[in-house]
């Protein structure tokens, strides 16, 4: 019996052989394609969540401005509406939606310290002997973060901040360094209606 040796293909012929190349090329582009697709969906989800959060915050702030809502009622109004689009697993998470209202005497005080009402030398800074508006009722003057942790009184300025944190739509996005959560931050300012006298709590050191 005569056995024929297997035919060997030239290297050039192997290099020109394109059979199976499509599978390799598909594998190479699959990950970038999926990343772009999931990234687009995640951005769209963020835009939608941001719009809903801002809308819920504005509606709740307007309702609270007339003075017939408590701080907790306003927090619940915003939280309940935002939770409707959260993943089911996050709807009962108390840290998924954080609503923080702070009250100030006027717009110029927002984000700053408590208002000094009786200023002694040196003028313009708080020193012993000055009187100040103790917004957060902690018994001391606060140079920063001096907002009251309530809905204030008539004519007060209320600063609302909402922080929403939910897991990303796909673990793949977290794996490439985009973080494990989608974080939305919404803020608004609104003045309470003049439904009564503006209340102040004055303390003197």
Can you describe what's shown?
- This protein has helices at residues 11-16, 21-64, 71-83, 171-178, and strands spanning 97-104, 116-118, 131-133, 157-167, 181-191, 202-204.
- With 205 residues, the protein is an alpha+beta fold.
- The protein has a 3-stranded antiparallel β-sheet, covered by helices on one side. It has a 3-stranded antiparallel β-sheet with strand order 2-3-6, with no helix packed on it.
- The relative contact order is 0.18.
Instruction: Determine Rg (CA atoms, Å).
Output: 30 Å
- In sequence order, what are the helices and strands, one letter per element? HHHEEEEHEE
Question: What is the rounded distance between the termini?
Answer: 115 Å
Q: What's the total count of β strands?
A: 6
Number of helices: 4
Q: Which percent bin holds the helix content?
A: 25-40%
By secondary-structure content and strand pairing, the structural class works out as alpha+beta
What share of the residues does DSSP label as strand, in percent? 15-25%
Outline the biggest β-sheet.
Answer: 3 strands, antiparallel
Tell me the overall shape: elongated
Q: Which ranges are low-confidence, i.e. pLDDT below 50, for 5 or more consecutive residues?
A: none
Strand order of the largest sheet: 1-4-5
What would the average pLDDT be, to the nearest integer? 79
Provide a brief overview of the structure.
The protein has 205 residues and is of the alpha+beta class. The chain contains four helices and six strands; from the N terminus they run αααββββαββ.
Task: Chart the SSEs and their pairings.
Elements: H1 11-16, H2 21-64, H3 71-83, E1 97-104, E2 116-118, E3 131-133, E4 157-167, H4 171-178, E5 181-191, E6 202-204
Antiparallel strand pairs: 1-4, 2-3, 3-6, 4-5
Helix pairs in contact: 2-3
